[in-house]
Description:
Blueprint: H1 8-26, E1 31-32, H2 34-41, H3 45-53, E2 59-60, E3 64-66, H4 67-78, E4 84-89, H5 93-105, E5 109-116, E6 125-126, E7 129-133, H6 137-144, E8 148-151, H7 155-167, E9 172-175, E10 188-191, H8 194-210
Parallel strand pairs: 4-5, 4-8, 5-7, 8-9, 9-10
Antiparallel strand pairs: 1-3, 2-3, 6-7
Amino acid sequence: MNHKNAPKSVVRRLPVYLRILDNLIRNDVEIISSKELSDETGFTAEQIRKDLAFFGAFGTRGTGYNTSFLREQILRIIGLDDQTNIVVVGAGHLGTALIRYNVTKNPYVNVVAAFDIDPAVIGEKILDVEVMPISEMKKVVDTYTVKVAVLTVPSEQAQAAVEKIVENGINVIFNFAPTKLRVPEGVYVHNADLSIELQSLIYYATAEKEKTF
């Protein structure tokens, strides 16, 4: 079965399983059942079994899953068995925070550079990550075989930035700019609009308040 044809909903759950497995292994847990994974993730045991079965048979009926083996398989499926080189485009507050988090907390990615158009920040370092001019992107992408960019520029600069990213050979973009991007076919964009997420949460706070009336 072609793993690249996996439903997006399944792919989005795989990193959740990976995070749980990382924690279990750190705590010397060797075997876990789908029911226990269900308790940890909030997904049903049936859903977990279906998700994993899409990629192969990784467990033993009546016993469960070996945590180290399952972790290795999920790393391979996602493509994290080798560290992935990424760049961050936009070295403002959000870009800086994401760089710091990924350098110190995310062992699966390697931030090789940050890019910005502001002369005031070009040449600075965020931990060991240098902020470089956009004109240097092609050289960095070719040197480190970068295929993923994190975009954290203001919305009015986002389209021009994404065009430069695509022009330099990157075809997977994690977009934090609150705007819809136009990209060619074959380029994958995942949008994370923090304002919309926060406003959605406020709905629940308002609904809770209305219960008091």
